[in-house]
Design goal:
seven-stranded parallel sheet; about 40% helix; globular; single chain; alpha/beta; Rossmann fold
């Protein structure tokens, strides 16, 4: 008997200060693995765990728009038919940006039957205990966690709690067939990039070629045009 595929949405949230190829590759990877119909790129408004000197929202939004343009071209080249949308939901919300509030709003918007997955790297998973009301997330969404070379999922789990123990899986089909409640660990993506390290690269005059390998050209052009990250 054929099982009808339910609509599948991925949320890629972050400060995006700046967006880099790691974000784009993660979106591409989970678009394939989870057969996503739609990715919502969600720049944070006021990330409560970040320092107060993050780049203003207007620049992070503009860089995200250029990153989305690059991601769209990447999808076309690789025959991926996932729709990509940038959302200002968190930027428009007053006060700190909490993932749980976003998960609730996206769930209310798309209804109870759509598969919604919050996409993240192992570094975010390792720190999830610091997220506001983090144990509540599986009541609204799935979580999909991609490994990173310097943060293995095993190590991240050692630093984590057993609250999600009965929800963990390595089978992406479970996320496709149900709307929420699973935590997928994916060991096949290995990209070692971080926005903080890239900002340090600008501060420390890392070579243009090195930065160009990590940041999409349109984003890098915007950074140079606006003089971002040059004055610490």
């Amino acid at each position: 008997m054929d099982i009808k595929k339910r609509k599948a949405i991925g949320i890629l949230g972050g400060t995006f200060d700046p967006p880099h190829w790691g974000h784009l590759r993660l979106a591409e990877h989970f678009s394939r693995v989870l057969q996503l119909d739609h990715i919502i790129w969600m720049p944070a408004g006021q990330p409560w765990q970040k320092s107060s000197d993050i780049t203003p929202a207007k620049h992070r939004l503009a860089m995200s728009e250029y990153a989305i343009e690059t991601l769209h071209d990447l999808f076309v080249d690789h025959h991926i038919y996932t729709k990509i949308e940038i959302s200002t939901l968190e930027m428009a919300r007053e006060g700190p940006s909490y993932a749980i509030d976003t998960a609730k709003e996206i769930r209310a918007l798309y209804g109870p039957d759509v598969s919604i997955t919050w996409l993240m790297g192992a570094d975010s998973w390792a720190n999830i205990k610091t997220w506001h009301q983090w144990p509540e997330l599986p009541k609204y969404v799935h979580l999909a966690v991609a490994s990173r070379p310097e943060t293995t999922l095993d190590n991240a789990n050692e630093a984590n709690t057993t609250v999600f123990a009965d929800k963990q899986t390595s089978d992406p089909q479970l996320l496709q067939l149900s709307p929420l409640g699973h935590v997928l660990f994916d060991q096949s993506l290995q990209i070692n990039l971080s926005s903080s390290a890239l900002r340090d690269g600008f501060y420390n005059s890392t070579s243009w070629d090195e930065l160009a390998d990590a940041i999409p050209p349109l984003v890098l052009d915007y950074i140079e045009a606006k003089g971002l990250y040059r004055n610490k």
